Amino acid sequence: MRLLHTSDWHLGRSLHRVSMLGAQAAFLDHLVATARDREVDAVLVAGDVYDRAVPPLAAVELFDSALHRLAEAGVPTVMISGNHDSARRLGVAAGLIERAGIHLRTDPAGCAAPVLLHDAHGPVALYGLPYLEPALVKDEFGTEKAAHESVLAAAMRRVREDLAGRPPATRSVVLAHAFVQGGRESDSERDITVGGVAAVPAGVFHGVDYVALGHLHGCQTLTERVRYSGSPLAYSFSEAAHRKSLWLVDLGPGGELAAERVDCPVPRRLARLRGTLDRLLTDPAHTRHEDAFVEAVLTDPVRPADPMARLCERFPHTLSLSFAPERAGQDDTAGYARRLAGRSDQEIAEDFVAHVRGGSAPDAEERAVLRDALDAVRVDGRLREVAG
């Protein structure tokens, strides 16, 4: 059986206020064409279809068009909700849409009810595990702890129990939206840390033939059978070096697996440039970046006049400009945003406490209080999305 694995479309998202709707439409054209031309048996979408719980109308129209075209092509699609999606909104009319071969899995209680497809070698059970917010689903799964590993492990126990009752030749696929250990982050994923822990071990998914992951934006292989497709487009400059692609997965009669990367269209490359303004404007090595989206960091010791206007004369698609002046004898010259890059909310909060107390870092009890407060704020946000 041939599967096309994708995730993290983030329909409606922009890049530094530049609309990505045109690029997202081009990607969906590519997705539908690939599914048709490569004779795909099913498309797997592992969450974060939209960028926010209440997406703009143009994003909903893109989604609607893609589903219609996949249905018209006769390609079954299995799709789960991610942490950016509103599961309730995405799941509206799921039962009706399923008649057209579009299988939306947004309810955690249904994680052990697979979509069953068949090929010449027998059945394939596809289980959809939507994003599981630990505090919201711990009662559903009867776990003592509101932790990512606990609820995912409980969901996978249900999957394995269901699979055990099916014919022995049944092959299995799981879609999940989670941060799995070994995965590489970028700047554009929303933090899902709970209790100071975000990642779960890949071993939680043992016992199935393929795991189609969503959440991290870089295409990556954690094990032969556990993979992230990554986002189809770059949504931050931290993704400038990413090769955006889909996974084309062939699942053999005995669970044998072969995977091929299918490149996504690149609407415009991303480039991260650093140096003095004069150097950026004159260095011939940067000629290849003149048509790219550019993030520029200027290192001039004194801020030059009209830097953005001058940069845009050579790089008309400059989207981000920051300053990191290089001065002799000064080490801490990075801007505030740059100092925070790559740091978790917990680390930032602890550093703030240490700063206002003259260097006295929070103790273990205080760190736990901060962690609980941050978890409560994040869960409250998810509850508001669900209620909305």
UniProtKB/TrEMBL annotation:
Q: Which domain of life is it from?
A: Bacteria
Q: Domain Nuclease SbcCD subunit D C-terminal: where? A: 267-355
Keywords attached to this Swiss-Prot or TrEMBL record, sorted alphabetically, are: DNA recombination, DNA replication, Endonuclease, Exonuclease, Hydrolase, Nuclease
Family (UniProt): Belongs to the SbcD family.
Mind telling me which Pfam families this protein's record contains?
Answer: Metallophos, SbcD_C
Q: What would be an example GO MF term here?
A: exonuclease activity
CDD domains the record matches: MPP_Mre11_N
Known Gene3D superfamilies for this protein?
3.60.21.10
Name the gene.
sbcD
Describe its function. Answer: SbcCD cleaves DNA hairpin structures. These structures can inhibit DNA replication and are intermediates in certain DNA recombination reactions. The complex acts as a 3'->5' double strand exonuclease that can open hairpins. It also has a 5' single-strand endonuclease activity.
How is the quaternary structure described? Heterodimer of SbcC and SbcD.
What name has this protein been given in UniProt? Answer: Nuclease SbcCD subunit D
Q: Which NCBIfam families match?
A: sbcd
Residue ranges constituting the Calcineurin-like phosphoesterase domain according to the UniProt record: 1-218
